[in-house]
Amino acid sequence: MHNETERRAALDAFVATPSGRGRPNRYWKLDLDALDVSAFTPNAASTTVTISAPNGVTACSLEEALDSFADIVARAQEHRGNGKFAHLTRAFAQTGAFVHVPAGRIIDEPIHIHTRANDADGAFALTIIVIEAGASATVIEEFEAVPGATLVYDSHAEVGESARLTASAIAHVPADARVYVTRSARPQRDAHVAFSHADLGAALAVAEIDITLDGPGANGELDALFFPSAKQHVDLLTRVDHRVGHTTSRTAIKSAANGSGQGRYLGIIRIIADAQGSDASLRDDALLLSRGAHIDSVPALEIAANDVKAFHGATIGAIDEEQLFYMASRGVPRDQAEKMIALGFFEPVIEKFPTDSLRKQLREALEAKLA
Amino acid sequence: MPQTGLHIHDLHVSVEGIEILKGIDLSVEAGRVHALMGPNGSGKSTLANALAGHPHYTVTSGTATLDGEDILTMPPDKRAKAGLFLSFQYPAAIPGVKVANFLHAARQAVRPGDLSPSKFRAMLFEKMDTLDMDAAFLGRYLNDGFSGGEKKRLEMLQMAVLAPRYAILDETDSGLDVDALRSVGQAVHALRATEEGKNCGFLIITHYPRILAHITPDVVHVLIDGRIVMTGGADLAHRIEREGYDTIRDEVASRA
Question: Which range marks the domain in which residue B207 is found?
Fold first, then answer.
């Protein structure tokens, strides 16, 4: 893992890096920039990483990979996320996962990376995923935490020419746990990345998801949902960076909040001046299910090129009365209708998750929140 | 002794403080077909929405009973459970809610536990077959991206699945769409041919008489300016077809 000097530098960078979520902050009770890390006393026993992968894939702990795949790990490290919480992971992580899919290999069965926070001392894990040219794989990043735990996780995927990666993560942890997740991917020429992500609450769930389109023809898709209820907070940042021309991306976010749940979403699309001919869309819809719930949603389109297509659309509000009346006129009581409409609202994002069991898990978790 | 029929007595309804219905008296008997006709703005859709319990429509006085039960004090879902069905001109789209799931939830709500899931499915396929509907409908999201004709067919499928005691069909604007008229006619006949639906009473609301070529009404009512001004047999619809509403309006004015 990182040596002492690198850890010090990462910790300094964590402190110095603003969370990038300075606005909007009218209703937001938490100041992520002021997060106190002095409570962490990380030790190796706090974090358990388990990896399962089908044949044809190299999957091992990151510690082992540093010996056997030093070059590949080092190259991937150059491009990994550099957000505030990625720095935090690097400062403390002593374990992690490494997945390598050789060129041209098509892997249908999903690869699972399970990260568990065993105690309240702070769990930290780093994941490196490398999909070589022409290969294809699905990775499911699972999190588990004991009550009161803090889990800090950072994963980065390098996706080679014409390769495909579908990667999915669900943060569904105890209501008093905290999770800080950073996920990033760098698809190269004609490569395709589909990220799906769900934050189903925790006392605090922070996620930063980045796709950097780094070769012509690269395509990124990012579907995420979040649902803070009771006194939960969710903070999601997505960023799609069009670094070269003729790259395409689609971002779709669905969020709901009930109880006193608080959500904040910052969605960034960046198209640099050289990235002509790019096409990006960003759509986010938020559903407020109680008076005490609040969601702030801020799109940020930073477009320096002139020959591009960029779409942004957003909605926020309560459930439509006409929809409720329609269902009631067919005998469906209001509370059941609200539940069906809210679950339906999430369905387009749920459908992007790659396995039946994930979709089922999501529907059940959402249903429980709506009960 | 509860009185069967859908009975509306001296019903006054306002929308945003403006009185639209000014005392409606109308009774639909079990197993009979009534048509409510009238020009634009006469209050036809207001009557349908007020009976179904739409929150924007305020009943200021009068009564409405369904087989002896006062429906005006019930929330909309209880009215459906009591046996009332309203087919909408413009049904709401609900993305993410699949037609099959919705139909099952509605049937369960209106007739709890009367069919096992497999019997429900069998019944659903049979009804869809009768209405010439493709099974692909079931996997689509409720009215989401549906054409006008598809929405109409789905409304009729819901009527078939729920087999109400009284069905109000708001066909105000569908007078010009031949396929829509045909599917409504087909659905009404199909429902009446079933054991559950043979005693269903219908109130068909329309501006244009053409739908009545597909469903012959037993009784025709003419609604003008929030009041029923004339009631007659099927021949009244033919008169409206020939003369429009103006001569009826004049006749009523000269009577007053």
Answer: 6-91+167-255
Chain A positions in Cβ-Cβ contact with residue B162 (cut-off 8 Å)? 330-331
Residue B11 sits in a domain whose CATH number is 3.40.50.300
Classify residue A269 by burial, with Cβ atoms within 10 Å: 0-12, 13-18, 19+.
buried
Calpha distance B79→A331 (Å, rounded): 7
Domain ranges of chain A: 4-370
- Interface A–B counts its CB contacts (< 8 A) at 85
Residues 21-60 of B with CB under 8 A from A: 52-55
Domain assignment present for B38: yes
Burial class (CB in 10 A: 0-12, 13-18, 19+), A139: buried
pTM: 0.91
pLDDT by position in tens, chain A (length 371): 778 898 999 999 998 888 866 665 566 777 787 777 777 777 889 999 999 999 999 999 999 999 999 999 999 988 988 889 999 999 999 999 999 999 999 999 999 999 999 988 899 999 999 999 999 999 999 999 999 999 999 999 999 999 999 999 998 899 999 999 999 999 999 999 999 999 997 999 999 999 999 999 999 999 999 999 999 999 999 999 999 999 999 999 999 999 999 999 999 999 999 999 999 999 999 999 999 999 999 899 999 999 999 999 999 999 999 999 999 999 999 999 999 999 999 999 999 999 999 999 999 999 999 98
Asked if residue B28 lies in contact with residue B51, where contact means CB atoms within 8 angstroms, the answer is no
Nearest Cα of chain B lies from the Cα of A77 at a distance, in angstroms, of 40
How many domains are contained in chain B? Answer: 1
Q: Which chain A residues are within 8 Å of B52, Cβ to Cβ?
A: 325, 329
B110 within domain boundaries = no
B15 inside domain:
yes
| Minimal C-alpha gap between A280 and chain B (Å) | 23
In a domain, B54, yes or no: yes
Nearest to A331 among B95, B109, B141 (CB): B109
Interface residue B208 vs chain A (CB under 8 A): no
